[in-house]
Amino acid sequence: MDSFPEVEISNSENNSINTIGNTSVAGTSSSSSPTTLSRYENQKRRDWNTFGQYLKNHRPPLTLSRCSGAHVLEFLRYLDQFGKTKVHTPICPFYGIPNPPAPCPCPLRQAWGSLDALIGRLRAAYEENGGKSELNPFGARAVRLYLREVRDLQSKARGISYEKKKRKRLPPQPQQLTAAPPQPPPGEG
């Protein structure tokens, strides 16, 4: 794999990078838009621009229409070099310990939760920018399997469980019975 220049997360939003059909991948910002985007929408736009820049810098350059799950995996592995999460190797004395008492030479990686959220945003952005859901490379089986593998590896290495949180179910509320006024037993009254 060729070396790619470091990609800033806050790339300029004014340059168009790739297209799906006639839709711009790295949308252009317009000064006439009075609405402010939510934090999620801004992050999704930055992630989309970053991925578009990655495709542009790929050797050979890739168009989004030719991008596959394998390219998404390559992108995720590329992002690992900018990670800030210590992931212990099995030979590290701190393997499986959540808060190690001393530094170690284990590599820094992207945290699983960050990668999972990133893929979710990119998957949504792909479809919002004209991509067909059945062709979405961010939803490819290989990407889902990779994320599961990263989650499991980091869970063991860092001693942190990523169990799915069970939804709290509210206890059933006692039914309010509308009590009819007591009726005298038959034959009395």
Automatic annotation (TrEMBL):
- The residues covered by the ALOG domain are 39-166
Low complexity composition bias: residue spans: 1-38
GO MF terms held by the record: DNA binding
- Pfam families membership: ALOG_dom (PF04852)
A GO cellular component annotated for this chain's UniProt record is: nucleus
Q: Which UniProt keywords apply?
A: Developmental protein, DNA-binding, Nucleus, Transcription, Transcription regulation
Matches recorded under InterPro entries: ALOG, ALOG_dom
Q: Where in the cell is it found?
A: Nucleus
Give the similarity note: Belongs to the plant homeotic and developmental regulators ALOG protein family.
Which PANTHER family did the record assign?
PROTEIN G1-LIKE2 (PTHR31165), PROTEIN LIGHT-DEPENDENT SHORT HYPOCOTYLS 3 (PTHR31165:SF95)
What name is this protein filed under?
Answer: ALOG domain-containing protein
Give the originating organism.
Answer: Fraxinus pennsylvanica
Traced from the root, the source organism's taxonomic lineage reads:
Eukaryota, Viridiplantae, Streptophyta, Embryophyta, Tracheophyta
